[in-house]
Specification:
It is built from 16 helices and 8 strands. By secondary structure, it is an alpha/beta fold. It is globular.
Length: about 350
């Protein structure tokens, strides 16, 4: 990517207590032009039920915005929302939810050219600010599709404190996986004769460092939530500046993609899958995984494949398939031969938690 390439940055990143209750004030502060414009809120049935009061408040703040309950995080659903937005002259899309909702709302706003306000109910991965949406296409197949990043991101620390613990742990896992992703990006640049975009690299490294070296160990504390929110947004911006997912996605993400696409019965979140993948990736890269292992133990992230029903044979097969799951993506897997005995040894080490 050359220096003349344009990229988008969010106009607003607000991480505040009870932010959903005064989201209109936040928007007026940063985006006065869209105050009073016709808006629609995209969410899901269970979230609309759980957060009825908060979502109704946001609706009222945006002039009685329609609350739309999406059914699937699919390409078709995003297109249907975009069609509705265009036909009804809606100018603002507000996504309230987790990764599924935010990716769908983000892509709908990309197609319809509406302003997109991202309001996460959990911090499970860095897709909240990334220039990509992961959407279902046919059956269980999913595709990562480029799109525009949010115009505004509003994080309500009260919502995140009360979100399921597993979702926050997933967000931590996705952040820490940048350690191996950045190694793979440098390796890929060397092998393909391309450049690493320095500013994107620095942002992704800062995202990782801010969480890895965080003094606050209580993940329910508002201090930690602010740090994690900013780390996930920095990851998204790093991808936007790089023009690809390389600053945040390496061999550990290929491992997670195989699980998501080939082993859909394995119940594991994206962030925990990439955290688990980062340990073998680290070893294959010739780095010592002790720092990552100690970190995961400190925060209570269970990285044992056995805990998620992944047998030694499956673990080996996932890594074998990971080499080809994203054709053309150069990582440490492109550099080394598949060694089942080595993965058996790593598996044994990982299940001895």
């Amino acid at each position: 990517m050359n220096q003349h390439t344009r990229f988008n940055l969010p106009i607003c990143l607000a991480v505040e207590d009870d932010a959903f209750s005064h989201s209109d004030e936040i928007i007026k502060r940063y985006l006065p032009d869209i105050a009073g414009q016709k808006a629609i809120i995209i969410s899901e049935d269970n979230l609309i039920r759980i957060y009825t009061t908060k979502i109704n408040e946001v609706s009222k703040d945006f002039g009685g915005a329609e609350i739309y309950s999406m059914q699937n995080a699919s390409f078709d659903e995003a297109v249907a929302i975009a069609k509705k937005v265009c036909i009804e002259d809606i100018k603002v899309i507000i996504g309230i939810g987790g990764g599924r909702v935010l990716d769908t709302a983000k892509y709908a706003s990309h197609i319809s050219k509406a302003v997109y306000i991202c309001m996460p109910t959990s911090l499970s991965n860095d897709s909240l600010a990334s220039p990509f949406s992961v959407l279902e296409t046919e059956g269980k197949a999913r595709k990562t599709i480029p799109c525009k990043i949010p115009t505004a991101i509003i994080v309500d620390t009260d919502m995140i404190v009360n979100a399921p613990l597993g979702q926050t742990l997933s967000g931590i896992g996705d952040t820490i996986a940048k350690h191996t992703a950045l190694f793979d990006w440098k390796l890929s640049a060397e092998r393909t004769g391309t450049n690493v975009e320095d500013f994107a690299y620095a942002l992704a490294r800062m995202s990782y460092d801010s969480v890895y070296h965080c003094d606050e160990k209580d993940i329910k504390s508002r201090v930690f939530i602010r740090i994690l929110s900013r780390a996930l947004v920095m990851g998204g911006l790093a991808m936007e500046i790089a023009g690809s997912s390389r600053p945040c996605s390496g061999s550990e993400h290929l491992f997670a993609h195989v699980i998501e696409e080939k082993f859909p019965d394995i119940r594991i979140s994206h962030g925990i899958a990439v955290a688990m993948g980062s340990i073998p990736a680290c070893i294959m890269q010739g780095q010592d995984p002790k720092g990552l292992i100690d970190f995961f133990r400190t925060y209570g992230i269970d990285y044992s494949p056995m805990s998620y029903g992944i047998s030694e044979e499956m673990f080996d097969e996932i890594w074998l398939l990971a080499r080809d799951i994203r054709p053309g993506r150069v990582t440490i897997l492109s550099d080394i031969k598949h060694d089942s005995a080595k993965f058996s040894e790593i598996y044994s080490r990982m299940v001895e938690v």
